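During the reporting period, our protein records have gained a C-alpha cell line. One record among many is quoted in full directly below:
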Amino acid sequence: MLLVHNVYFSLKEPTDANRKQLVAACDKYLSDHPGTVFYAAGTLADLDRPVNDRDFDVGLHVIFKDRAAHDAYQTAPKHLQFIEENKPTWAKVRVFDSNANAAK
C-alpha cells in the first residue's frame, strides 16, 4: 500500500523570495529518496473557493511505495538536514499522512 505524505508549511515571513527558497530546499533535500513514487513541492495555488484551506505558503507532496520507505525517509540524513536548516523559518507545519491504493 502506498503512503502519501503531504506537508504544509506556513512561513514566519511569507515573502515570494522565502517561498521560493523553501521550495528549492525541498527540491534539494527531499526529492530523491529511496522508495519515492512521486515528489512535488510548490506554493499555494491561486484558488479561493469556500473549500480551499489557504493557511499555508508551501506544500510538499511525497508518495512512498510503502510504510517502510516513509519510515526510512523520516530518519534520512538529507531529511534531517532539511529540517535543521529550514525550521527557523516556519511559523507552522501541518503533516497529513494517508494510506492509498493506486487506481487501476
